[in-house]
Amino acid sequence: MTPRHRRMLFVALILLAVSTAAGFLLTALNGNVQYNIVPSDVFAGKAPKDRTFRLGGMVEQGSVKRELGNLQIQFVITDFAHEVTVRYTGVLPDLFREGQGVVVRGKLVEPTADLPQGQLLMLADEVLAKHDENYMPPNVAESLKKTHDVRRMQESTSGSATAAP
Amino acid sequence: MNWVWFHKLASPPTAYAFARALRPWLLWPSILMMLWASYAGLFVVPPDYQQLDAYRIIFVHVPAASMSLMVYSMMAIAAGIGLIWHMKLAHAVAAACVLPGTVFTVLALATGAIWGKPMWGAWWAWDPRLTTELILLFLYLGYMALRASFDDIGRADRASAVLALVGLVNIPIIKYSVVWWNSLHQGKTLSMFGKSSIDPTMVAPLLVMLLAFLMFFGAILCDGLCAQILRRERHAQWLLKQVS
Asked: How many domains in chain A?
């Protein structure tokens, strides 16, 4: 083995050792570290009790309730299987709206009496809005939505046509 | 394969002359392209359907972030070549990479924070993508500090090369952090193969800015390399002849 080969081996071993270590670390982290947990996890009992955590999901359509004269807001986060009601006081990010993905940091508390039975309540200290990597002009988004709607309409009508005798 | 041209290029006098000659051809076009891309990004392309005008910072943020990864990879590869083949010029290239790399990383983090505040609602979040990019900044700073802590340039080269190689593992983690973890940061915008997720009407300033950053980095690398050669070869005859 020439010195050059030895050095090559040395560099290869560094890379191998470090990537193996990183691989182990990442697999270990994957089990424990989740940036956010979703409402279904909360219902499965995976949410920490008496400790803040991040809850991720979609703001349910029509669930946002504001109070006049202050910054209090209440909305429902859903993952389309389960829901958690969130209360927050503060300024919301620009992208916060119904149907938008959000990440909320807060603590689960005893549900108040005015909530429906079985609904969980979270008091949030922070509300972050998510956005996706799709960037497009408004008219493109509009036409995308339209074709999507038209296709869905066609599907539903053709579906009902075949269903009809 | 004939490697004579490569060995020639790797000799300090040729590399010095080459870098000096190449620099203006990279620098001035890159500045023009940056100006055009900034203008087009700010005034020509349409606003985003969700973020309206706020998304326009993408034309700096994404190229800067891409460059921060690319420059680090280049630095680590150059350092590895220098380590294996005892090539001093490769070490000089690695040393010249660290400053522009740090600047691109700071730029990516700063524009990300400025973008994050109005859109997400926070300057910073301990999101996997953000955290790993911050680690990249620390790797660059650590590389600089390690280099500065040796008086002997040969030992500085070898020690910092090991650090650069160890840090290389962070690069794929940054790149795939948005794929591996469901987090706050959105997925990748540009795709080398397959469809980019940015509308075709908006993509031109992004690509031009990326190319401009790449060329600008090339020009700065030429400068850094010349400075490295001047320092390393300060007793060499060819340099004394050239300077006097």
From this structure: 1
